[in-house]
From TrEMBL:
Predominant subcellular localization, coarse grouping: membrane
Pfam family, any one: MFS_3
Residues spanning the membrane: 17-36, 48-68, 80-100, 112-141, 153-173, 179-199, 229-254, 266-284, 296-325, 378-402
Family annotation (PANTHER family): ENTEROBACTIN EXPORTER ENTS, INTEGRAL MEMBRANE EFFLUX PROTEIN-RELATED
Keyword terms: Cell membrane, Membrane, Transmembrane, Transmembrane helix, Transport
Classification via InterPro entries: MFS_trans_sf, TM_effector
CDD domains, sorted: MFS_MefA_like
Compartment(s) where it occurs, according to its Swiss-Prot or TrEMBL record: Cell membrane
Protein's name in the database: Putative MFS family arabinose efflux permease
Topology with respect to the bilayer: Multi-pass membrane protein
Amino acid sequence: MSVNDPYAALRFKEFNIFLLVRFAMVFAWSMQFIVIEWQVYSMTKDPLSLGIIGLMEVIPAVGMALFAGHIVDQKEKRNLLMKCIFGFSVISFGLFMLSLPSILESYETKVILYGIYALVFCGGLVRAFLGPTIFSLIALIVPKKIYPNAATWSSTTWQMASVLGPALAGFSISLIGVHWSMCVIFGFSLLALTALFNISKKPILNPKIGEPVFQSLKEGLTFVFKTRAVLGALTLDMIAVLFGGAVALLPIFAQDILHVGSEGFGVLRAAPAVGAALTMLGSTRFPLHKNAGKKLLLAVFGFGVCMIVFGLSAYFWLSVIALFLSGAVDGVSMIIRQTILQLKTPDNMRGRVASVNSMFVGSSNELGAFESGVTAKFMGTVTAVVFGGTMTLLTVGLTAIVSPKFRKLDLQKDVDEHES
């Protein structure tokens, strides 16, 4: 099997099942986040409330991340993923119950809002374990020589689900309301749980079972901070997402600036994922591991430009195009980062490294949502988005200047080593 085969990873049955599980989970999670955002902003009309949603998820996700990585490296991955999905299903059912018309009529807005925040907080706990478990499981399903191809298909699946989840959320809110939209989300979580039974249990490759927690965490952190390629990719993406992401403010743009309603909100929310999915599908035939450092820097720079254009736009379709292009370049960034992590991380440390990744990048989405909510509250929505895009451009320029080794990063040698 050649690493140049664009369908190499898809020739493994369990990997296809894994993709179905990941699609269903990401679809459910992204749709749920959109429905929650819409419901909360409709209830409060306060941009800060959107930031609080992100904060409620990021606190447990970051607080538990390193501990979760330790647990993932110590436990069997398939069963651990089942527990994560079951936890998400319970949370989805709780949100479904909170959106019952009878509940909404019986309790004050503040009580419902606190209930939503509490369930989002529990979702952050689940997410702390979910990301590292998924990252570790991929490496146990396919051989090392096709890790880049598997990472590309996994990221593509993630983006496709991110396209359909938000798009369906917007139309679903309009057609069947928030309550039954939550029921659809719960159904997809059950689909993921059922499909996962078709993947067999996997061996635990960590030779240090029972290792003290703090020693284990120190080993994982030391590896990340000593591996320049990993640290550079995580840091660059974290700062770009933290300051450049505007998705948390999309309900404001849809309702108060562009005046396009829930259907337009769904289109806006899906546009970045459409661009990223197309980029990722193309990358299965045109790999991105050559000159990876330069490509990553250019991709993040392009992302910042797109955010500035989106923030200044007063036209719906210009806004959609800007978000689409931001997703396209962000897809390049995601693929390169995942390829770096898969190629550079030892099997016995995948859980811990993925946890650090979730702290740097995954949680920066929620911190970015909080940052966007706060800056929008005090600077205005448009100014907040333009400020974030400008900070992204400055970050890329600074990284290119102070880290010439990262700028020259090329992953071709790593790919050749795994192929041989």
